[in-house]
Amino acid sequence: EVQLLESGGDLVQPGESLRLSCAASGVTFRTYAMSWVRQAPGKGLEWVSGISGGAGSTFYADSVRGRFTISRDSSKNTLLLQLSSLRAEDTAVYYCARSVYGFPWAFDIWGQGTVVTVSS
Amino acid sequence: EIVLTQSPATLSLSPGDRATLSCRASESVSTSLAWYQQQPGQAPRLVIYDTSHRATGTPARFSGSGSGTDFTLTIGSLEPEDFAVYYCQQRSSWPLTFGGGTKVEIK
Question: Number of residue pairs across A and B with CB atoms under 8 Å?
Answer without folding.
Answer: 62
